[in-house]
Amino acid sequence: MAEVKLTTDNFKAEVLESEIPVLVDFWAVWCGPCKMVAPVVAEIAEEYEGKVKVGKVNIDEEQMLAMQYNITAIPTLILFKNGEPAQQLVGLRSKAEIEGIL
Fold first, then answer.
1. Is-catalytic flag, 78?
2. Is 31 a catalytic residue?
């Protein structure tokens, strides 16, 4: 399963009510480091299918979600478990670093 585009409308169902952990990538089109981490996040979405859901929040389109989770720098990756933020990584990270929070 590919990454899920997360919006204010589907965030509760896709993330907060998910039965499996959800890795949420807060990003923006104009963000260079976001573009660099995107293929790694996509790879994780494929490799961990069924174990971890991967969603993406475009902070320019979904400013309320960005504010709700205090996103002050991007990319920011937040792992949600049982509807709660459990781990967070800010900035460009390696695949190993991202896998380390899963």
1. no
2. yes
